[in-house]
């Protein structure tokens, strides 16, 4: 378990004081994948770097499995850090070392014997699917392969926590998917807690159990990923999820519509229900689907449907009420002219 308690990080220079992280408290459970999102400058990297004390907090505490990292000596901290792996957007591999040597480096630093290192590196390369690349230099690897080496190196000393600093931001969408799959496997099969920062909600959608939203150093919203996607409270959170779920109808379509246009959000089990066909059977109205989309937040469906209803206004109103009672939310976008 990771406990971030009232953490503040200020950067003080002669000219000014910049607050990187402003009084943030978060508890991350063991085995969880926890996402931190926010725009550039929100304080995500600073917060992540405070978790292994690469960055020293100005105030507050960071406890990993009950140990207060801020109270440790340098020597104790080096030891504690071995249990906190980290991967980076730009991979941070040593270009003059082969894949094998890059991974072995972390094990040598921890003082392991040669035979153990030999065995452990091959084991790690097997986990990340790169055994056949062990004698290759980083320059000859693709971005995805470089990140796999980064992951193998981060896992070398059997960490309990893996910190991911925009781990897929430099990768194309297909490679991103495969790295996210690998991180999911590492979380599920090795039970490693993952804390990741990202500005991509796709990453959160695929991987994160819980998510925090940061703005100007502060934590403005936090909760289970499904709740954040289905019921965002803060305007910034709404902006973030729009990229995944929302859909704006063209203005002309709304203007020219002769019916009532509604947007329905389906949550959880109701997403699969035949609410629309029920409604159309029950009420003498016509329904024209203008847009529909279902996203899976991990394994749970969340959908939106935009429909134009036409018919007698009393019947349309009754149909809307009927749907409201059965779904997560309903919004009337345009009334019948
Ligand atoms: N070493 C530093 N010295 C001074 N100010 C810093 C330093 N590192 C970060 N900051 C400032 O702290 C604030 C938060 O930066 P941080 O890099 O944590 O944000 P971020 O959300 O990770 O952004 P990005 O996605 O661009 O990396 C910014 O205002 C930044 O300018």
TrEMBL record:
SMART domains to which the protein is assigned, alphabetical: AAA (SM00382), NIL (SM00930)
Cellular component aspect of the GO annotation: plasma membrane
Domain ABC transporter: 2-241
Record's keyword terms, sorted: Amino-acid transport, ATP-binding, Cell membrane, Membrane, Nucleotide-binding, Translocase, Transport
One Pfam family named in its UniProt record: NIL
GO biological process, one term: amino acid transport
Molecular function GO terms recorded: ATP binding; ATP hydrolysis activity
CDD domains the UniProt entry points to: ABC_MetN_methionine_transporter
Residue spans crossing the bilayer: none
Family statement drawn from the similarity comment of this UniProt entry: Belongs to the ABC transporter superfamily.
PANTHER family reported for this sequence: AMINO ACID IMPORT ATP-BINDING PROTEIN, METHIONINE IMPORT ATP-BINDING PROTEIN METN
UniProt protein name: Methionine ABC transporter ATP-binding protein
Record organism: Peribacillus cavernae
